[in-house]
Every structure is written in C-alpha cells, then in structure tokens.
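Notes to self, FAD/FMN-containing dehydrogenase:
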Amino acid sequence: MLANEHIDNLSALLGAGGLLTGRTDMAGYEKGARYDSGRAAFVARPATAEAVSAVVAYCARHAIALVPQSGNTGLVAGSTPDDSGTEGVLSLERLRSTFDLDLDNRTLRVDAGFRLSEINARLEPHGLFFPIDLGADPMAGGMVATNTGGARFLRFGDVRRNTLGLKVVLGDETGTTVELGAGLRKDNTGVDWKQLFIGTAGAFGVITECTFNLERLPQQTATAYLVPRSPEHVSVLLNAMEEQLGTYLSAFEGMSGAAIKRTLAHVTALRNPFPGGAVPDYVILAEVSRSWPRRASEQPLEAALEEVLAEVWNHSDEPLDDAFMGPPQEMWALRHALSEGVKSAGYVVGLDLSFRRGGVMPFRARMREILASEFPDVEICDFGHVGDGGVHFNLVVPREADGSVNAARVDALRDRVISISVEAHGASFSAEHGLGRRNQHFYDRYTPPKLKSMAAQLKQATAPGPLGSTRLG
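result:
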C-alpha cells in the first residue's frame, strides 16, 4: 500500500482526472490482453510530456516502481503491474496533442498515445501509411518500446527500421527529457541513442513522442494461397517467389491447418476458401503490391502473380501442391482472425519465436514429434511471418472442467519449447512481442553475464529508479 502522502502529491501533479486509485477505475489497466493481471498502487494518466516528466521524477526520488503502459495489447506481461500492489501504472493514453505530418520528408511526428488505426486513418487521404500491419491496435509509444514487426516485415521492416526520432523521459530524479533524432534518415554524428529505447520495454525511459518514416499506400495488391508440397518446400517457394517478384513481394505468411480449422469453426462469418472445404496441413498467404496505380502499358498485378505462380509450379523442385488467388481483403480476413480463433480453442501458451528463415519448418517438425510424446493433449496452432523467420508458436492446452489449467504444467511446456528453440535451433525467444515478466526467466537464462552487466550500467545512467516491468541488468 502506497502512503497517502504520495497519492496526494501525485494527484496534485496531474490535476483533475489524472490519477486513478479506485479498484474499479484501475481494473482495465491492471489486466493485459491475455491472462496476465496484477494489482496497481495507482494509475497515472499525464496529458503532456511535462506531466510525464514530473511523475517519473517524483517516483524516482521516492523509489516508487512505475510500469509504463501504452495500448496494453501485449502478450508478455510487459505493461501491467505485478501482484504486490506497490507498482504504479503510467498510462500514455492521454498523450495525444502532436500529430505533425511532413509530406516533403514523408515523416510523421506523433505523440505516444495515438493508436495505429487512427494514425493510418489520418494518413490515408495523403496516400501514406505507417507500414506496420498487426492484428492488434497498439499505440505509437508501445510499438516503439516493443519494436513491433507485423505481417509486412518482409517488405517494410519493423518499427526500429521505421523510427527516425524519439522524445524520451529518462527515469532519473529530475525526469530529464531528451530528444533523439530529428527526422533524418542519415545521421552519423555519434551514437544513435534512440536505438537504446526501441525494443527495451520502457526499462531505460518513457517514450512520449515518435517520428516515423512513412510509406506510400499500395495502389495495386494481389494475393494467393499457396499449399507447399511438403514442409521442406516452404523455403524453396519463398526463394522462388523472391527471385521472380523482387520487392513486389510484400508478405509471405504461414498458417497451420490446425489454426485455420479452429478459426473457421469460431468465426462463422469467414468463408472456407479451400476446395471441398478440406483445409491443408499448411498454407502460405503470399501478397504482392505496388505503390502506384496501374499504368496502361503495365501488366495487371494479378496477371503478373498468376504468371509467376505458373513458373513456380514448373520449378524443378516441384514445390507447389496447390495454389489459388482470391480477393485480398477476404484472404487477409482469415489471417487476421487466427489469433481470435486459436484463443477460442482453450488456454493458449503463445510463444513468439524467431529463426533463421530456413529454420522455421525444421523446428515445427521436431516439436510435433516431441510434444506428441511428452504433451499429447496439447494442440499446435501456429502461424506467423515465415518469410522473415518469425512464428507465433501457439500451443492450446485443454482446460479442466472448472476452467482452470495446471500452472506448473504450462510452465514446463513453455520452458521445454523455448529451451529447444534457443539451444538447438538458435532462435530468439522474443521475436516481436518484446520483453516482459513472462520472458524474464528466459532473459536471465540466455543473456550472457557481460551483456547483462552492460545493460545494468546503461540502466543506472538513464533510469536508476524502478522503471519498467523487465529487469535487464
């Protein structure tokens, strides 16, 4: 329990409506997007960067733990308090003043509280978008803090690649505010300090403003479902598509048959697109796009994709078992519904893993054998960005009659899969969900001592107070 003196002082700093302390008022900030929940000492809701600085400084001076929270869409317990009731939540949802679009520079300077959907809705009339495609709808600050990737990473890269500047409040006793980068695409004048705050879950400072690179909205898009002849042919397909399409290839998404079946059963508005309704064991959603309207002398993109698929079909390795094109909106609707469909099947142990591009399918094959032997009641419902080596390795654990799950068994399952992925396959245990309490154990296990020592020194320099949910040092 936090002393009333601190509550009163923080309330005075933030003004009316800026501090929440009632259990009902705080409930939405204490629970994450999937399963994780805690108990907050308070929820601070600053409306300006100056107010963020004041709150962070006060908490640093009085050793009050503070967990920054953006859109709260993460799945690794990175934006919610623990169960102690001593941590405060610093919500960035009211940081919504700055939305500065620079058309000549093709950049956007935006406050941390704007959601991705609103950013892109405002950019659409200008023919631009922030090229991060997600099933969730996070806020700008959280996307940077977790270095979000998404379904079009293959073409546009992650948030790190598209961030040109940040404004950050450091976690020191004065709440020092620093501006890092100035919307420049080239700047070799020293250390690129903004990278320190991208993907580190708020441990080094609180992001209050971002400057993003923007891309031209696709004006032509074509999509196809590809059924590989075998798991080994997925890499052959990817390489052949890249060879034939180059940068036109904007997505190469893998979807397991188990995940598709669960989704079609749960989301009844979706149409089963597969011949005879028979869902293949594994399906690739491939997308090609151009950022300009079709020219009169130019082959339609659908025809170009169809021609490439015919060439791939006749490839010497015979990688395709089936392929068919369809309306992009309809094909993407199935891909974007997978998370909801899988979640309906039971308790989901969601593992966000990243491999070398050729390593995804061998890992899947190995885990199917191991889990069938050691956890036979667990269903693998994976999908993900196989074109960049990423996979959301979702494991559905049946619930007990009372709706509960065996927590120790879930921990053992998670530990078994991650240990094999990292130790035997050279994977990352956090591809794009960021760090959080759920990944702390694996960070502690797999991060070399020297790197943890370096992180601790950086933490001491930028945020000596208890900031963020993850211990990097």
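- The two ends are 27 Å apart (CA to CA).
- The chain is about 35% helix and 20% strand.
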